[in-house]
Specification:
The complex is a heterodimer of chains A (183) and B (644).
Chain A (H helix, E strand, L loop, with lengths): L12 H4 L53 H15 L4 E6 L6 E4 L6 H12 L17 E6 L5 E3 L5 H7 L2 E6 H8 L2
Parallel strand pairs in A: 1-5
Antiparallel strand pairs in A: 1-2, 3-4, 3-5
Chain B lengths: L3 E9 L3 E7 L11 E2 L6 E3 L10 E8 L3 H8 L4 H9 L4 H8 L3 H10 L2 E4 L7 H7 L5 E5 L19 H9 L6 E5 L5 H10 L5 E5 L2 E4 H10 L5 E5 L2 E3 L18 E3 L9 H10 L5 E3 L6 H10 L5 E3 L2 E2 L6 H12 L5 E3 L3 E2 L8 H4 L4 E3 L8 H8 L7 E5 L3 H11 L5 E5 L13 H10 L5 E6 L4 H10 L5 E6 L14 H10 L5 E3 L6 H10 L5 E5 L5 H10 L5 E5 L5 H6 L9 E5 L5 H10 L3 E6 L17 E6 L12 E3 L1
Parallel strand pairs in B: 6-7, 7-8, 8-9, 9-11, 10-12, 11-13, 13-14, 14-15, 15-17, 16-18, 17-19, 19-20, 20-21, 21-22, 22-23, 23-24, 24-25, 25-26, 26-27
Antiparallel strand pairs in B: 1-2, 1-5, 3-4, 4-5, 27-29, 28-29, 28-30
Helix pairs in contact in B: 2-4, 6-7, 7-8, 9-10, 10-11, 13-14, 14-15, 15-16, 16-17, 17-18, 18-19
Classes of the chains: A alpha+beta (183), B alpha/beta (644).
Keywords (chain A): Auxin signaling pathway, Nucleus, Repressor, Transcription, Transcription regulation
Main location (chain A): nucleus
Family (chain A): Belongs to the Aux/IAA family.
């Protein structure tokens, strides 16, 4: 995962700069007590203060880290692949729209991406999710039908769990969705 | 009422062999006494100790028999010694006993049936058989531990073939073979199956090099096979229906574990096999065994104690699912459960009935079970002693474990997604909760997103009984998440509090200071794993000087160099092995070490294409593995391994 490039500042020459080293690694390496450590090309120096953000730090693939047996890694990878193989296409309906759309959930990395895409697709505003209030205050609220056949509010469960349990999406009118937000 | 005297048999290091008589008042003893026929007043108790006093044996003798006994003492008949040694099951106790004197060495070596070899290159098979001709059970370990993490090339070594060949030649009556990280070929398995008529038990852990054809040979030829236990091996599937090769006459199986196999097995054969093996206690199937087959199997084997399910996917509203629930309810002996390689969460309620008896639960290969369902399941498991899960359980889930599983002794939390940092759902909070709720906790393996010193200090206070403490932060050099300080103080607290700590793995931002703590406090430490830690040679030196019982030290990507390596070369003869990769040691220093210490094999793994001559002594060594050995450089080293 790459750290988002800073689009708002100037020309962002750094992003196009040609240099050796892993992406995401800053040239001006901060002084740390580990200076005399051999700087392995694979090492990711993501522990410094400056890099602490709410977004997860970019991860370089260090050989053999985390120390997980290859057997286990292979099993996890296999299980991941099995679910990765095909796209997860789900129907999306919107209250009042004449026809449905279909999207591939695999294409999106997280809820933010998905909601933005839905907003674009249906030209609506969905707003921001909050655990307590749901999408209260927004014109529309995104809901989905899960494996058990229940209608759930989008955003409650972790993203990975969502994409494997979501069978279809429905964008409800905010007025109808009010009940959900109070649960 | 007779007064008894307890006799402690000690070994005095400097004064040779001697007996000491100590008179003690009666004391309560549990355990059986073995009465020795030639002197009915003489009882040998089963309490054999191994302590810093080298207490080796004890006997109770009637006081008025003492005089006649005294003369006997110097001439312990061999049969008597053998009886006493029978009670010694730990190989360490037996090793201690064999050092007492020549006659004890002789008696011990002829009576030892179980041999444990921690490094297959420390001794040769021929010498082993010469010393222990009556060996019936052999345990061998091959590759260094870091081979698990792809740091050692596959054909580095650790072949079992020469061992089997020697045992065949030596006429060994082999009954049990347990291998870890070894290379096992189909040829080896065939030779094994055809050479030892009483062979009973094969346990392979993290091995590779064989296929299901080798398993077929075992199945068809080992007439008294009791145990076939395959744990986490890489096995090539040859579609030969190996399981069907168990003859109809085979009814002796007690334990069958083939969970790691990737291919199909003949379900009908499996069901028939289970039906005719009434002593079957442990069965772990692979993912190719579906839930309805499992149900039929369980109906035939309600006496199972350990179950590993295969695929646990089904329509929970179906008839076969209901049958499964019923069959499960009849399995009242199951105390260990694992598998769930494919799982539909809604099928889990079928196992709720056995949850309350479970002492071991392994869900670490079941990413399909999310936190909520895990929690629902664990709520039923209040007798759990051993739990293995993925980090999808989350800190909240661990909180539930802490409040439910009061008997918990061992916990392992594995990462569910190793390629993306930031998604892991356990932190120091979960660990603290567990330490607070589970007073019997003594072993932990914990992969987490972040850690703090405060948390580790709390854990150390809550759980002073750790024997194994392995912490892995997904980012190897992450500092204290709150204070941004190194995690020195936290790990220092752990070693200071846990006086019995034998195994330790550390991670996170660590300086030389933490190693000072290890050297000072970790007096019982036997195995230490270090990665991306320390500032200078001092760190490694603290450990080498302070950790007196250190057996295995493995270090990667840390700034330890020649000074540390060469400071106390004799130390390595007291250890099983040392691994150093991506550190600062140079080829020259390794050569020096190899030259000065002939009883060590110093191996360099060189995977680059460089010619030997062009390599400079000042060059840093990428991977070094050294170990003590009685048999010099090994003859099966591949091209990329240089023994200096």
């Amino acid at each position: 995962m790459e750290r988002a490039a800073v689009y708002d500042s100037d020309l962002n020459l750094k992003a196009t700069e040609l240099r050796l080293g892993l992406p995401g690694r800053d040239e001006s390496e901060k002084q740390s007590s580990r200076n005399n450590k051999r700087s392995s090309a694979e090492m990711e120096n993501s522990c410094d203060k400056d890099e602490q953000e709410s977004a997860p730090a970019p991860k370089a693939q260090v050989v053999g880290w985390p120390p997980v047996r290859s057997y286990r890694k292979n099993i996890l990878q296999h299980q991941k692949n099995e679910s990765d193989l095909s796209g997860i296409f789900v129907k999306v309906s919107m209250d009042g729209a004449p026809y449905l759309r279909k999207i591939d959930l695999k294409v999106y990395k997280n809820y933010q991406d998905l909601l933005k895409a839905l907003e674009n697709m249906f030209k609506c505003s969905i707003g921001v999710y909050s655990e307590r209030e749901g999408y209260n205050g927004s014109e529309f609220a995104p809901t989905y039908e899960d494996k058990d056949g229940d209608w759930m509010l989008v955003g409650d469960v972790p993203w990975d769990m969502f994409i494997t349990s979501c069978k279809r999406l429905r964008i409800m009118k905010g007025s109808e969705a009010k009940g959900l937000g109070c649960l | 009422m007779d007064t008894y005297i307890n006799i402690y048999i000690e070994r005095e290091r400097d004064r040779g062999f001697g007996f000491f008589l100590t008179e003690l008042s009666d004391y309560n003893r549990s355990g059986s006494n073995l009465k020795v026929e030639d002197n009915p007043e003489l009882y040998f108790g089963p309490k054999i100790f191994r302590s810093s006093l080298h207490l080796i044996g004890s006997a109770r003798v009637k006081k008025d028999q003492m005089r006649s006994f005294q003369s006997m003492l110097n001439y312990f008949p061999e049969e008597v010694l053998e009886h006493v040694f029978d009670f010694l099951t730990s190989h360490r106790d037996r090793n201690a006993v064999s050092l007492v004197c020549k006659s004890w060495y002789a008696v011990e070596r002829f009576s030892r049936e179980k041999v444990f070899i921690g490094n297959c290159y420390a001794i040769s098979p021929d010498r082993l058989i010469a010393r222990f001709p009556r060996v019936r059970s052999l345990t061998l370990k091959g590759k260094p531990h870091f081979a698990d993490f792809n740091l050692v090339p596959h054909d580095w070594g650790g072949y079992v073939q020469p061992w089997i060949e020697s045992m065949v030649k030596g006429g060994v009556n082999l009954e049990e073979l347990r291998l870890k990280r070894m290379l096992v070929s189909d040829e080896s398995l065939e030779l094994l199956a055809n050479s030892f008529p009483n062979f009973k038990s094969l346990v392979l852990v993290s091995c590779e090099g064989f296929t299901t054809d080798g398993l077929a040979a075992i199945a068809s030829n080992c007439r008294f096979l009791r145990e076939l236990d395959l744990q986490e091996n890489e096995v090539e599937d040859r579609r030969g229906q190996w399981l069907s090769r168990f003859p109809d006459s085979c009814t002796s199986l007690v334990s069958l574990n083939f969970a790691c196999l990737k291919g199909e097995v003949n379900l009908a054969s499996l069901e028939r096999l289970v039906a005719r093996c009434c002593n079957l206690r442990s069965l772990r199937v692979n993912h190719a065994v579906p839930l309805d087959a499992l149900q039929r199997i369980l109906a035939q084997a309600p006496q199972l104690v350990d179950l590993g399910t295969g695929s646990f996917v089904h329509d929970p509203d179906s008839e076969s699912y209901n049958k499964l629930e019923t069959s499960m309810q009849k399995c009242t002996s199951i105390t260990s459960l694992s598998g769930f390689l494919d799982v539909t969460a809604r099928c889990l309620p079928a196992i709720y009935s056995i949850c309350r008896h479970l002492t071991t639960l392994n869900l670490s290969y079941a990413p399909g079970i999310y936190s909520d369902e895990l929690v629902k399941l664990i709520c039923h498991c209040n007798k759990l002693e051993r739990l293995l899960v993925l980090d999808t359980i989350g800190d909240k889930g661990l909180g539930v474990v802490a409040s439910t599983c009061k008997e918990l002794q061992e916990l392992r939390v594995f990462p569910s997604d190793i390629y993306v940092v930031g998604n892991a759902s356990v932190t120091e909070e979960g660990l603290v909760a567990i330490s607070a709720g589970c007073p019997k906790l003594n072993s932990i393996l914990y992969f987490c997103q972040q850690m703090t010193n405060a948390a580790l200090i709390t854990v150390a206070k809550n759980c002073p009984n750790f024997i194994r403490f392995r912490l892995c932060t997904l980012n190897p050099t992450v500092p204290d998440a709150v204070t941004m300080q190194p995690l020195d103080e936290g790990f220092g607290a752990i070693v200071k509090s846990c006086k019995g700590l034998k195994r330790l793995s550390v991670s996170g931002l660590l300086t030389d200071q933490v190693f000072l703590y290890f050297g000072r406090y970790a007096k019982q430490l036997e195995m230490l794993s270090i990665a991306f830690a320390g500032d200078s040679d001092k760190g490694m030196l603290y450990v080498l000087n302070g950790c007196k019982k250190l057996k295995k030290l493995e270090i990667r990507d840390s700034p330890f160099g020649n000074v540390a390596l060469l400071a106390d070369m004799g130390k390595y003869e007291t250890m099983r092995s040392l691994w150093m990769s991506s550190c600062e040691v140079t080829l020259g220093a390794c050569k020096t070490l190899a030259q000065k210490m002939p009883k060590l094999n110093v191996e360099i793994i060189n995977e680059s294409d460089q010619m030997e001559d062009s390599v400079d002594d000042k060059q840093k060594v990428e991977k070094m593995y050294l170990y003590r050995t009685l048999v010099g450089p090994r003859k099966d080293a591949p091209d990329f391994v240089w023994t200096l």
